[in-house]
Write a structure and sequence with these properties.
about 220 residues; Phenylalanyl-tRNA Synthetase, Chain B, domain 3; 12 strands; about 35% helix; B3/B4_tRNA-bd
């Protein structure tokens, strides 16, 4: 379960989240490869690097960065924008492992940031979106640990999974041994709930190609 504390909820933050059990994260399927390639092809046909920042959904996340997080989105880009820019420059979508790659494909298709976490590595059962506390340290994937300064985080029992809505923790990252996953799609003001739900449904379908089985309904918080 994910709970959003009132001081964060008042900022218009919301999420769609899903749990999928039993994925095989060691082997790509032809259907998944097809879906990843289709997402890249669609992106290049329908979007352009020159006008990407004016896309209404990208604009919403950029505005949230500037106005709420006080972060320059040209220096720390929203996660999905960074992926889209890479693809629109003609570079391949990053390949990490089947589950992460499925999430990235859905992220560029629906233009939303998607975090995927290994449930076995999460401490506690209740996750909260809250403000970071003085002295809390975040350990990002692909970076050095750093102390947080009043940022929005997804946390459980003192463990920080995610700095909202752009960076995930190495502590709960998905790797080849991962079998059960939590999917969290980050929403901000100006983005429709239905877009997040559609992205979650699409990702659930891709994870079933890897043998995954959904634990219940996709939820909004």
């Amino acid at each position: 379960m994910i709970t959003i504390l009132n001081d964060v909820k008042s900022l218009g933050v919301f999420v769609a989240y899903d749990v999928v059990y039993g994925v095989d994260n060691m082997k790509y399927t032809p259907q998944l490869e097809e879906a990843i390639n289709a997402a890249v092809e669609e992106t290049r046909k329908t979007l352009s690097l020159e006008t990407l920042r004016e896309h209404p959904v990208i604009r919403a996340y950029r505005d949230f960065y500037w106005k709420t997080l006080k972060i320059d989105p040209t220096k720390q880009r929203p996660a999905q924008e960074a992926l889209l820019r890479r693809v629109l420059r003609g570079e391949p979508l990053p390949r990490i492992n089947p589950v992460v790659d499925a999430g990235n494909a859905v992220s560029i298709k629906y233009v939303v940031p998607i975090g995927i976490y290994d449930i076995a590595k999460i401490r506690g059962e209740t996750l909260r979106l809250r403000r970071s506390r003085r002295g809390e340290v975040f350990r990002p994937i692909g970076g050095q640990p750093y102390e947080l300064d009043n940022q929005i985080v997804l946390a459980s029992d003192g463990q920080i999974l995610h700095v909202y809505p752009y960076r995930d923790s190495v502590e709960t990252k998905v790797d080849e041994t991962t079998r059960d996953v939590l999917v969290v799609i980050a929403g901000v003001p100006g983005v429709e709930e239905e877009r997040l739900l559609e992205a979650a449904r699409h990702l659930r379908a891709l994870l079933t190609l890897l043998g995954g089985a959904a634990a219940g309904d996709i939820r909004l918080a």
